[in-house]
Design brief:
This protein folds into 2 domains: 4-126 and 218-255, Periplasmic binding protein-like II (D-Maltodextrin-Binding Protein, domain 2), CATH 3.40.190; 128-209, D-Maltodextrin-Binding Protein, domain 2. Helix content is 35%, strand content 28%. The protein has helices at residues 12-19, 33-39, 65-76, 91-96, 111-114, 156-164, 174-182, 193-203, 229-244, 247-255; strands at residues 4-7, 41-46, 49-50, 54-56, 62-63, 80-85, 102-108, 117-126, 128-133, 148-152, 167-171, 188-192, 207-209, 218-225. The chain has a 6-stranded mixed β-sheet with strand order 1-6-2-7-14-8. The longest helix is centred in the C-terminal third of the chain and has 16 residues, at 229-244. It is globular and about 55 Å long. The chain starts with a strand and ends in a 6-residue tail after the last helix.
Length: 261
């Protein structure tokens, strides 16, 4: 199955939706499952800047764990898949304004997001982590009050850091965060543990997580517009089938190296 990459520029309207706390929910006149079947294509969105979960390879293709899971779900539903990349801070706004059909981009399931979108899954679990250089003077989460913390704009890690009152610098994605930490422009970065750990090792950086950061594991789900119970059920059934027949294990082993469900 061909994964087609389309670069989507975030509109002002989508950005406004994102910044407003996602207060607007576009009404769905009918369940979208039939519409997708008629079109034969499901458009799924992600940032394209979150290796190894989703990123652009040397052939200019969006690859990784997320697009592989999304493509397999679509395949089980008899659909092709179109991959759309967009800035993370406007990604829910884009979903609500029908620029794509689902977000398969390692989105944490939160109560705030569940007010405006429905989730399929979770399709994996992870936790927040704060990484520093191995030789950093930062040894404890208690020292973050005096540090510059790098986060991805629009992620739950940004919201958490601001609620903590930390000094934050925002970036477009994980690769940029890693470079900023390596170059000393931030003292630490907050991100998903699995993604940051694997990307750190792949790049050969000597970064380590703060061990005393108290966080609970969170589920990551596939976001769709509300009012589509048939679509949600079909996607959930496809996901559960993938997890039961060994396909999920193969995808996870290829892109992550271990089972992350």
């Amino acid at each position: 199955m061909t994964l087609r990459r389309t670069v989507l520029k975030t509109t002002l309207a989508a950005g406004a939706l994102a910044l407003s706390g996602f207060t607007f929910v576009a009404p769905a006149a009918a369940d979208e499952l039939d519409t997708l079947k008629e079109k034969g294509v499901m458009r799924i969105a992600m940032s394209g800047a979150y290796p190894p979960f989703n990123f652009v390879n040397d052939q200019n293709e969006v690859v990784g764990f997320d697009p592989a899971i999304g493509a397999e779900i679509a395949k089980r539903m008899g659909l092709e898949v179109e991959i759309i990349t967009t800035a993370w801070d406007g990604i829910i706004g884009g979903l609500l304004t029908n620029k794509y059909d689902a977000i398969v981009g390692s989105m944490s399931i939160t109560a705030e997001r569940e007010e405006v979108v429905d989730f399929v899954g979770p399709y994996y679990r992870s936790r927040r982590a704060v990484f520093v250089k191995e030789d950093s003077d930062l040894k404890s989460a208690a020292q973050l009050d005096d540090a510059k913390l790098g986060v991805t704009l629009g992620e739950t890690h940004e919201q958490w850091a601001r609620e903590k009152g930390y000094t934050v610098r925002t970036y477009k994605g994980l690769p940029e965060l890693l470079m900023e930490l390596e170059n000393g422009r931030v003292d630490a970065i907050a991100n998903d543990y699995i993604a940051a750990y694997l990307a750190t090792k792949a790049k050969g950086y000597n970064f380590v997580p703060l061990e005393d950061l108290e966080v609970e594991p969170s589920g990551h789900g596939i976001a769709i517009r509300k009012g589509n119970p048939e679509l949600k059920a079909a996607m959930q059934a496809a996901l559960e089938e993938i997890m039961a027949d060994g396909t999920y294990d193969k995808i996870s082993d290829k892109w992550i190296g271990f089972d992350i469900r």
